[in-house]
Amino acid sequence: MFRRPFFRAYGFWHWGEGLQTVLFTWYMTFHAGLSASEIGFYQALVLSPFLVFTIAGGMLTDRIGAGVSYVGSTTLFGLLLFGYGVLDHAMGFVPVLFFVYCLAAGVVSAVSNPAIDTFIPEAGPGTAYENGVLAATAHNLAKLSGTITGLLLPMLAAFGGFVVNGVLMLLSVAFLRKHLRQNSEQLQVHAAGEGPPWSRVWQHYRACPENFDILLSSAMLGLLIVPTGYILWPLTLRERFPEYGDLIALVNIASWIGAISATAMAGRYSRRILKPGLVSLVVWGGYAVMLTTLTLVGSFAALCLVVMVLGSVKVGKAMVYGKYIHNCPSRARGVLISVEQTAFWGLATLGTFAMGASVDLIGLDTTILTTALLVLVFVAVLTLRGRLLRLSLA
């Protein structure tokens, strides 16, 4: 299945995204030697276009077609990476140029992200749910590959890192173009639909309430679960096992191994899973229970094991995301995907800030237990609403 051009395009895109995350942090911290406040500024700068322009990118995708939108924006992304690598090699770190790079990279990413996801339901011969699980597995494998590739940055240096990152983006474009040639119907530019975009979004959630509950679950993931990887795992490592601080990459790798194992298993038994929404609720509830064990880990190896199990939570979204996209009408698929991504990443940004402040205010263990409790409350509310329980493959 992963020989299909779309999954290769999807994999190279997220491989590039995974490397970009490591490259961006390494470049600022070690290559440019920026201060903590400068690093925070540029991190926020590169994320801000993604949060502000994602919905605009989705609207653009609906208007001009996902193929044109993705190929154009991702080609620009690849050329931008090449160009900045050359400029840095020739001139060194120049704050104005880096400012422009961060802003431009965020904008093109905001267009590319919703565009490539619109292809998932028809990416293979299976159902939208099965294709969604396969896409999640490709995503997790690619992110792990990006993280591992990031370990080569001291050898590649900044110039080599940006060039390799650009090559990955352009390979994604090449395979997406091949997918489009094999599936010419996906080249169609769909009509924008009736009424303004926000009106169409509201009408869709009223007509398809199960998609609204999937949106709520994405909000929960962004607000409570995604920030644990940015705050709770690293701080647990720092407070309990500071002597292993240089091995923090192993903790992240353990998380991706858990995610890949879970989504691969879900893909293998996908036809036997008749109630994917129920499975997601169980996974999220189990994550909350497992999260509490972070307060008990007694060794670095145990921490990696717990994080690997926690990483499997990524299968929860994979179970329902394909159905969400499938339920979206083609004329508004781009903007509806961008709404979901904005809920996910927008609340992840806020949740990360709040979780970090919480650790300073009430302590690490209390924050862990509070987060676990809030996840359980969210899961209980979604269960009582009942729509995810009734979610089926049909």
UniProtKB/TrEMBL annotation:
<feature type="transmembrane region" description="Helical">
    <location>
        <begin position="334"/>
        <end position="355"/>
    </location>
</feature>
<feature type="transmembrane region" description="Helical">
    <location>
        <begin position="247"/>
        <end position="267"/>
    </location>
</feature>
<protein>
    <submittedName>
        <fullName>Major Facilitator Superfamily protein</fullName>
    </submittedName>
</protein>
<dbReference type="InterPro" id="IPR036259">
    <property type="entry name" value="MFS_trans_sf"/>
</dbReference>
<feature type="transmembrane region" description="Helical">
    <location>
        <begin position="214"/>
        <end position="235"/>
    </location>
</feature>
<dbReference type="GO" id="GO:0022857">
    <property type="term" value="F:transmembrane transporter activity"/>
</dbReference>
<feature type="transmembrane region" description="Helical">
    <location>
        <begin position="93"/>
        <end position="111"/>
    </location>
</feature>
<dbReference type="Pfam" id="PF07690">
    <property type="entry name" value="MFS_1"/>
</dbReference>
<keyword id="KW-1133">Transmembrane helix</keyword>
<keyword id="KW-0812">Transmembrane</keyword>
<feature type="transmembrane region" description="Helical">
    <location>
        <begin position="361"/>
        <end position="384"/>
    </location>
</feature>
<dbReference type="GO" id="GO:0005886">
    <property type="term" value="C:plasma membrane"/>
</dbReference>
<feature type="transmembrane region" description="Helical">
    <location>
        <begin position="287"/>
        <end position="313"/>
    </location>
</feature>
<feature type="transmembrane region" description="Helical">
    <location>
        <begin position="41"/>
        <end position="60"/>
    </location>
</feature>
<keyword id="KW-0472">Membrane</keyword>
<keyword id="KW-1003">Cell membrane</keyword>
<dbReference type="InterPro" id="IPR011701">
    <property type="entry name" value="MFS"/>
</dbReference>
<feature type="transmembrane region" description="Helical">
    <location>
        <begin position="151"/>
        <end position="176"/>
    </location>
</feature>
<feature type="transmembrane region" description="Helical">
    <location>
        <begin position="67"/>
        <end position="87"/>
    </location>
</feature>
